Amino acid sequence: MIPDLNALAVFARVADERSFRKAADRLGVTRSAVSQTIARLEATLGIALVRRTTRSVNLTEAGERLALSLSPALAEIHTALDDTGALSDRPRGQLRLAVSSIAESFLAGPLLARFATVHPGVQLDITVTDEEFDIVTEGYDAGVRLGEVIEQDMIAVAVSPAQRQAAVCSPAYLATHGAPAHPRDLAAHRCIGWRPAPRMAAYRWEFAEQGREFAVDVAPEITTNDMALMIKLAVAGAGITFGMEESFRAEFEAGRLVPILQPFCPSFAGFYLYYPNRRHLAPKLRALIDHLREGTA
Predict the structure, then answer these.
(1) Which residue has the higher pLDDT, 260 or 8?
(2) Per-residue pLDDT reduced to its tens digit, 92-123
(3) Considering only the top CATH level, what class is 5-89?
(4) Is 164 helix (H, G, I), strand (E, B) or coil?
(5) Taking 70 as the threshold, does the pLDDT of residue 22 lie above it?
(6) Is 207 helix (H, G, I), strand (E, B) or coil?
(7) Can you state the angle between helices 61-89 and 283-296, rounded to 10 degrees?
């Protein structure tokens, strides 16, 4: 039978003090409790560890060997506990996040840069991915996705305002091919589609009319998993593409892309940081949540 750590810690204190009374005083327990713990430890190991007299306590050969081996081991345990306690007191350590590639405001840079400046003890490890997986199983602390696709058992904190999707094309494409009057007319146009991963179907283009939502399965001439490439192709006049409106904002402002079919593109809930419902939230994640709330207030 392996003795418990508490018994070994009591023995180590007795070995240091060479006194049951002094060890009891240091541990905040009674002398009788110390004596009983040592007796149980000796019974478990099947060998005497201390020699007791009315005036002193000395170690046996077995006791000396055990005390010598225990000292560095207990020091390492105390160091490990101190390090763990430090993580519970202030934001420290690696914070792993899985973030959707279309979470533009979160990935823009300033928000995360400010967090890194304020919390230098936290190392951000951000994976930009649109694949769906269990963040807990994969070892992530949190994720950022559209609210509508987050699992119900997760805690979610808004990190963006309401979002809107948009169908867009270049002015040159518009001048040559004209604008579709209705999403069903997209079948007659060249389209640039997006897929989150190579083995997944291309994203369906979602619209709404008179409060009724519907999706259009376009047949893209070009499909990619790279949002930046999709935008470049649309700017180059390769066709109409579809995505989050804020992804195209810089191109709208520069006049390189124009929105079409706007009456059929309603707004919806935006992006959320989500994480498991845990009783004790790590300070590093709590710090990020507080930072996001301050930034979106």
Answers:
(1) 260
(2) 889 999 999 888 889 888 999 999 999 999 99
(3) mainly alpha
(4) strand
(5) yes
(6) strand
(7) 10
Contact 100, 126 (CB under 8 A): no
Residues in the chain: 297
Are 70 and 11 in contact by the 8 Å Cβ rule? The answer is yes
The single-letter code of the amino acid at 195 is R
Range list for CATH 1.10.10.10 in the chain: 5-89
- pLDDT score recorded for residue 51: 87
Q: Average pLDDT over the chain, rounded to whole?
A: 87
Please calculate the CA angle 49-50-56 and round it to the nearest 5 degrees. Answer: 170
Residues of the chain with CATH 3.40.190.10: 93-162+270-296
Class of CATH domain 93-162+270-296: alpha beta
% pLDDT > 90, the chain:
42
Q: List the CATH code of the domain at 163-268.
A: 3.40.190.290
Of 70, 99, 79, 108, the closest CA to residue 196 belongs to 99
